[in-house]
Amino acid sequence: MSESRFIRNFSIIAHIDHGKSTLADRILEVTETVSPREMLDQYLDDMDLERERGITIKSHAVRVRYKSNIDKNWYIFNLIDTPGHVDFSYEVSRSLAACEGAVIVVDASQGIQAQTLANVYLALENELEIIPVINKIDLNSARIEDVETELSKILGVDPQDILKVSAKTGEGVEEILERIVVDVSPPKGLKKDPPQALIFDSQYNTYRGVVALIRVVSGFIEKGMKIKFMGENISTQVEEVGILGPKMIEKQRLDPGEVGYLITGIKEVEHITVGDTITSFENPAARSLPGYKKPKPMVYCGLFPIEGGDYEGLRDALNKLSLNDASLDYMPESSQALGFGFRCGFLGLLHMEIIKERLEREYDLELMTTSPNVAYKITLNNGEEIEVTKPSDFPPQEEIEIIKEPFVNATVITPKDYIGEVMKLCNSKRGKFKNMQYISMERVEIKYHLPLSEIIVDFFNMLKSITSGFASLDYEVSGYRQSDLVKLDMLVAGDKIDELSTIIHKDKAYYAGRELASKLRKIIPKQNFEVAIQAAIGKRIIAKERIAPFRKDVTAGLYGGDITRKKKVLQKQKEGKKRLKKIGKVDIPDDAFMSFYKIDSNK
Which CATH entry fits the domain spanning 486-598: 3.40.718.10, 3.40.50.720, 3.30.70.2570, 2.60.40.180? Predict the structure, then answer.
């Protein structure tokens, strides 16, 4: 039955909240893979965090069996549910590398969104068969005909070929399964060829070590076989192979086209990398499978344990988490204000929030993050080129010849009524207009060239706000461009606080300095001495605020007498405060390090 002609490997991809997890639930129900008693909403989203936020964070693979109504044969479907947020597009690319088909899901009330377009292009690059689906047709607000027109225009397909379903009620789900049988091609690999299997995900099990999720492309992988990881050049023995149905079910071997798991007992997480090719030690393949590139982090921030003793625990947790999140990058970092921690690289701000929350929940850690920034490429006067991922490494301004920052090609899809507001927002973020086109009578696609540093913090929230939640955003990094940037330092009581420094465009530095100083004045508690808060560019102070000291009435105990008695006591208090100001230390609260998040530097 495991003949490859009866196997279909496909992904469900869509914009966030368009119903792909609900559709996966209905497929599990229709194929009776999960009993009604065990069924949960968002069944494949096994993290509490995914269910709470209503989003898919990780790709999830499951094997289902389906009997076709057309030819009455039983088929094996390997379904991979994928995330929808732009920060997790690397998860989508990993899933597509293991598939022959993709079901593109579009919400009937919202229409095509920017991330839907990005996923369509990703599927086309992988030469996958695309099955377009309009979901949520049961809603009163559904615009089925409009969305059908948009989809047929973008995909170049006949409107009759677009399926209309309701994942909530189950209407039309069987039609999708029949289309997968007919349209998606079976795997092409042969059992007699040397084994080649792609690792498309992995996870860590405390007792078994690393569990690799694999797609066998050619040959076979069986229990007891000696295998080799081609990228890492490491050999080991297979302890167990099996399928995900959706729980792990052990099998003797995996044949061409099958998707399943592999356990070797390896506990060193760095030895098994996502994207690597597994082959036989005795009969190795000539070359690795065309992998996907390791995603390059674009947003960096410091991650520090609140309890100093948790440093080792944080290191182990990051090690294990990076196993099934290939885009997480980290290196040790020490800070005068925050102690020992790690400098971490993420794909975006949501990715950063999710990783922090997972570390706190799954590994029982209390963490603090510094304000996020991007990586800059700097050419010094002596011709040397360096990459800077944190403001404290920024060289003095007089030593810099050229500063380059990452730019992105951003696509915004919005109703036509909001075109002016969207363009105004993009222009305020130093954006350069590229083009605009109508994808339907009511909706328009606007393309801008924007600095990544301007959109990682609050751009998405502002976009949703000005368009009443109707606009969507997708972006891809286009390279580095020269910019007029400066380092903005914050001094508290005369001490430079590296964790509060930031790199910003020269035109916005003065406003941002004043705003940040004003915010810190409200956050930092009063001391027994006056505290000066200053914003500086190089040696030039551009903004200053003061926190007045506690006022204690030292003359309250004096009754009557000459006025000089009061003056003497007040003078003594004044000198004490002066001395405290020289030696006093200011404790900076945790939320001060995230102050820059909340600055609207567009004014």
Answer: 3.30.70.2570
Amino acid 353 reads E
Q: Which homologous superfamily is 196-280 in?
A: Translation factors (2.40.30.10)
CA-to-CA dists, residue 424 to 192, 433, 603, angstroms: 61, 11, 12
In CATH, 4-183 is 3.40.50.300: yes
CA–CA separation, 346 vs 330, rounded Å?
9
In sequence order, the 6+-apart residues with CB closer than 8 A to the CB of 11 are 79, 80, 81, 82, 92, 95, 96, 99, 101, 102, 103, 123, 128
**What is the topology classification, in CATH, of domain 299-369?**
Alpha-Beta Plaits (3.30.70)
Rounded to 10 deg, the angle between the 114-125 and 89-96 helix axes is 30
Q: CA–CA separation, 96 vs 94, rounded Å? A: 6
Helices 173-183 and 20-30 pack at an angle, to 10 degrees, of 90
- pLDDT for 36: 58
Q: Which two tokens stand for residue 401?
A: 């010849």
Confidence band for 586, pLDDT divided at 50, 70 and 90: low
390-405 pLDDT, tens digit each? 888 888 888 889 999 9
Which tokens in the block code for residue 272? 């098994």
3-state secondary structure (DSSP) of residue 264: coil
Spatial CA neighbour of 546 closest among 533, 555, 561:
533
Taking CA atoms, 196 is separated from 80, 229, 294, in Å, by 20, 10, 20
Q: CA–CA distance from 264 to each of 191, 209, 221 (Å)?
A: 22, 8, 12
Quick one: pLDDT band at residue 603, thresholds 50, 70, 90? very low
Topology annotation, domain 377-482: Alpha-Beta Plaits (3.30.70)
Residue 365 β-bridge partners:
none
Nearest C-alpha neighbor of 175 from the set 132, 111, 233, 238: 132
Higher pLDDT, 46 or 83: 83
Task: Report yes or no on whether pTM surpasses 0.90.
Answer: no
- Judge whether 160 and 188 are in contact, CB under 8 Å: no
> Alpha-carbon distance 381 to 387, whole Å?
15
Q: Do domains 4-183 and 299-369 have the same CATH topology?
A: no
Grade residue 575 by pLDDT with cuts at 50, 70 and 90: low
Phi, psi (degrees; rounded to nearest 5) at 212 = -95, 130
Helices (H) and strands (E) in the chain, counts: 13, 31
Q: Where are the domains of the chain?
A: 4-183, 196-280, 299-369, 377-482, 486-598
Q: How big is the CA angle at 362 (ends 234 and 331), to the nearest 5 degrees?
A: 55
Single-letter amino acid code for the residue at 228: K
In this predicted structure, what is the pLDDT of residue 377? 92
The type of residue at 259 is V
What's the pLDDT at 91?
A: 62
- Nearest to 227, CA basis, from 288, 279, 286, 287: 279
- The answer to whether 497 and 337 are in contact (CB under 8 A) is yes
**H helical segments located in 68-172:** 89-96, 114-125, 144-155
**What element of type H or E holds 311?**
helix 311-321
